[in-house]
Structures are given as C-alpha cells and as structure tokens.
C-alpha cells in the first residue's frame, strides 16, 4: 500500500466534505496544530517529570480532536468531534494546580534553561501561532467553535507552566529576559 495518492500534487487537499486549496485557512490552522502536537510530543520525550508527560498526552489527544473537528464541513461533522467546554476547564484546573506549586519569577524569562523546559516553551510558541490562526479563521473566513480559541489560549498557559515545572525539577531558576 502506498503512503501517497498524488491527489495533492496540484495544490489541493481533502477535507471531510470538500476539496480545498492547501492554502485554505483551515488547512493552515490544522497544520499549525499538527506542528504543535509534534512539539508537545518532543517535549514529552525529553521531559523529566512524569506528570508533564501525562498532561501533555491529554493535550495531544485534544489537539487531534480539534484537527478532526476542523477537517469536517459543518454539514458532515458528528457532534462527537466538537471540542466541549469541559476540556478548556480541565486545562484551567491543571494550570491552576501547577501555579499553586511553582513560584513564578516576577519578570520575563529566557526559555532554554533545561531541555524539557525549552521544549515545552517551543510547543507553547507554536500553540500561540495556532491560536492566532484560529482567530484569523474565525474572524475572516469561517466561524469555528469558540471553545477552540479558548482551548488554545489555556493550552499555552499550561505549556508555560509545564516548562517551569521542568526547570524547577532540575533546581533551575529561569534567566531574566532583561540583563
């Protein structure tokens, strides 16, 4: 069985319900989410704290659900593929738990003091880009589930805290951004 079909050689791809250009804003957002879950996977691979791995897996699974939701046309999307508000609340709970356990510096920091922390910070930056693309899609092209934007906003906060958890586990205080 071949991995490729060749159907995309002309610059189009299939969504579930229609064929669109590979420059379609939904495809750009799905691509950014794919990149985000890959970077979260990399962060998991180098993370030292077991809870970081467990929570990162939850986020990766949510991102796959969001990608599936975006891949369907509105007419064909099953309700089971719509991200529920409860997933946003779950991220809030995880972030709040970490915030209660980790004292944050009162200044901007430079990412990269630990491998795990740096990896989660890269994932956070990619999620922020996906969030911007979701807002653009929602405002200029196609109305999307508002929980997706909320989720991505919360996910970037969680990833920031997972990075700080990794730093703390190594006994590292992040460097100030300003010298």
Order of helices and strands: EEHHHEHHE
Structural class: mainly alpha
Q: What value does the average pLDDT take?
A: 91
State the low-pLDDT regions, or none. Answer: none
Largest sheet: 2 strands, antiparallel
- Beta fraction: 5-15%
Kindly identify the CATH topology: Hypothetical Protein Ta1238, Chain: A
The CATH homologous superfamily is named Cobalamin adenosyltransferase-like
Strand runs, count:
4
| Envelope shape | elongated
Major sheet strand order:
1-2
CATH top level?
Answer: Mainly Alpha
Helix content: 55-70%
CATH architecture: Up-down Bundle
Helix segment tally: 5
Structure description:
A hairpin with a 2-residue loop joins strand 1 and strand 2 (18-21). This protein has 5 helices and 4 strands; from the N terminus they run E-E-H-H-H-E-H-H-E. It has helices spanning 25-46, 50-71, 85-101, 115-140, 146-169, and strands at 12-15, 18-21, 109-110, 175-176. The longest helix has 26 residues, at 115-140. By secondary structure, the chain is mostly helical.
Outline the fold blueprint.
Blueprint lengths: L11 E4 L2 E4 L3 H22 L3 H22 L13 H17 L7 E2 L4 H26 L5 H24 L5 E2 L3
Antiparallel strand pairs: 1-2, 3-4
